[in-house]
Amino acid sequence: MNIKKAILTGGGRATRLHPITTTVNKHLLPLANKPMMFHAIEKAVDAGISEIFINVNPGETELQKYIGDGGHWGIDITYFEQTGGPQGIAHVVNEAKEFIGDDPFMFYLSDNILLGGLKDLVDEFNSKKHDCMLALSEVPDPERFGVPIFCEKGTLIDVHEKPENPPNNFAVTGIYLYGPKVFFEAYKNIEPSHRGEYEISSIHSHFLKNGLSVGHKEITGWWKDTGKPKDMLLANKLLLEQLEETAFPNHGSIHKDAKIFGKVRIGIGSQVGAGVTIEGPVIIAENCMLEDCNIGPAVTIGNGTEVKKARIDNSIILENTTIDTSVHITGSIIGKNVVIKEKKEQVGKQMLVGDKTMIEL
């Protein structure tokens, strides 16, 4: 029962990442300087997937433009709009039933980032002929997720969505495998939760209460759901740390007085000037300019960005941004075309700030 099809999420509003996601689709935000969605696609392809179906918000065009038709990965990618507004992730899957048909499939929440691959999960799903396979991970805050419920013998008997008092510290991650037909049959028999959404946990609970075979396997290494800014920054740091040395070539221009330590990638056309210290892991994209600043560790800087005088660590800086001031920036996500500069006359702070922005001075 080889799985060749996958549904990936590309919709939603990502309100917890406002204001960045008011203008950028969350799934295109960079982690280790690569769009978040690309990490999910690569994991799926490595697991043997050849057809991917991505749900998008009505009227979405940005995602399609960046990702394309899948030719970059040697696969086929199709996009479909989620109709009727947000109704839960189980509803997302049901919207793709015409593409899936009677085939087994993978469902992957694209904002889930993991270190290991999915081959072991797929292999166990196949060898034990499960109807469903869940990937589990131990987390400090299980109340944010679907939580597996085990009996005294350790057998999986149910899944509860965001329980107030979780009985264990395991979360059901956003990577699921399903056998032929079973998901869509179960969907006909579930009701919206108190949140008004069709919960994916309700599907799994229905399976378990009706005698279907639901396997589970703990993910090796780390797993992160990037729903909050701090989760994105941690995922960015972990991805940077696990990259091999060969992923950090230097294609830029480096001043003889600049100091570079550890794993640092510098893109084509970028200039690292005098007075710059960079402590890896750091990725600096193309056509950037750095002068008299300290960068890293755990920093990615997007194309065309200029940094002068600042100290930056544990941060994600998007493209075409200018930072020209003696400020320490840490634990931050800074969007596109942002200007942060020093005010010469300290008579007050002049600002043009959009909705839902957070500034600490």
- Could you tell me the strand content as a percent range? 25-35%
Q: Provide the number of structural domains.
A: 2
Count of distinct strands: 29
Low-confidence segments, ≥5 residues, pLDDT <50? none
Care to describe what's here?
The chain folds into 2 domains: 5-228, Spore Coat Polysaccharide Biosynthesis Protein SpsA, Chain A; 243-341, Hexapeptide repeat proteins (UDP N-Acetylglucosamine Acyltransferase, domain 1). It has 8 helices and 29 strands. It has helices at 36-46, 62-67, 89-95, 97-100, 119-127, 182-187, 200-209, 229-242; strands spanning 5-9, 30-31, 34-35, 51-56, 76-81, 105-108, 112-114, 132-138, 146-150, 156-161, 170-178, 214-218, 223-225, 253-254, 259-261, 264-266, 271-272, 277-279, 282-284, 289-291, 294-295, 299-301, 306-308, 311-313, 315-317, 322-324, 328-330, 333-334, 339-341. The protein is elongated and about 70 Å long. The chain starts with a strand and ends in a 20-residue tail after the last strand.
Protein topology:
Elements: E1 5-9, E2 30-31, E3 34-35, H1 36-46, E4 51-56, H2 62-67, E5 76-81, H3 89-95, H4 97-100, E6 105-108, E7 112-114, H5 119-127, E8 132-138, E9 146-150, E10 156-161, E11 170-178, H6 182-187, H7 200-209, E12 214-218, E13 223-225, H8 229-242, E14 253-254, E15 259-261, E16 264-266, E17 271-272, E18 277-279, E19 282-284, E20 289-291, E21 294-295, E22 299-301, E23 306-308, E24 311-313, E25 315-317, E26 322-324, E27 328-330, E28 333-334, E29 339-341
Parallel strand pairs: 1-4, 1-6, 4-5, 8-12, 14-17, 15-18, 16-19, 17-20, 18-21, 19-22, 20-23, 21-24, 22-25, 23-26, 24-27, 25-28, 26-29
Antiparallel strand pairs: 2-3, 6-11, 7-13, 8-11, 9-10
